[in-house]
Predict the 3D structure of the following.
Amino acid sequence: MSTIAENLKIVGERIEKAAIRSGRSLEEIQLVAVTKTVEPARIREAIDAGATAFGENWIQEAKPKIEEIGRGVEWHFIGHLQSNKVKFIFDLFDLIHSVDSLSLAQEIGKRAKARGMTADLLIQVNVSRELTKEGLDLEEVFPTIEAMAALPSLRIKGLMTIAPLSYNSEDSRPYFRSLRELALKIKSEKIDGVSMDELSMGMSGDFEVAIEEGATLVRVGSAIFGERPHK
Ligand SMILES: *Cc1c(COP(=O)(O)O)cnc(C)c1O
């Protein structure tokens, strides 16, 4: 078995154990294999080993890779999206995890409408309030989503966050819990076009804690593909 296949098997088993431990069904948890800096040959290895969804951070890097591999698997955009790159999104990605402003949502909605389609997106929340992180502040999320819900051609399916870097996965738990509580609160408002059923949280260092706290999408890179080269 290749290293990638072996790693995928281990990550899959860890996901399953975390799901069982927290009384959740495995069907509600999707693994997004994060492939930034990973070349197509190694992505193909992951596909051969059963991976079905991939996450990319940069349009420029992702475009040739996705064009080479094709849309037979799911592609998720998880990086910071600039408005001038929105035009590329629809030919490449199935879900955007990282919408962090009303103006970006406006651009996505406008372009989706022009193409006669609806865009699926998650709202990125900076739960930890780190200055270096993208995402809306907690208290901005509800009013921003209300404003986004009035825009055409968007489906707001949930929230995404990145916990602060830490060597102890337990440190991430309060951030993940806050994100889930916020999603539940927004869901209870029953806004048209806003479903809040998806929670994208958890990476290689903390995906099990994220699953225990309700993650439906975990974004795992280095635990599958190994450490990335430092840029
Ligand atoms: C790189 C990245 C990941 C994956 O990180 P690992 O620690 O390698 O699992 C997940 N989410 C986002 C937003 C990323 O940029």
Q: What stands out?
A: The chain has nine helices and eight strands. Residues 34, 36, 57, 78, 162, 203-205, 219-223 surround pyridoxal-5'-phosphate (CB under 6 Å).
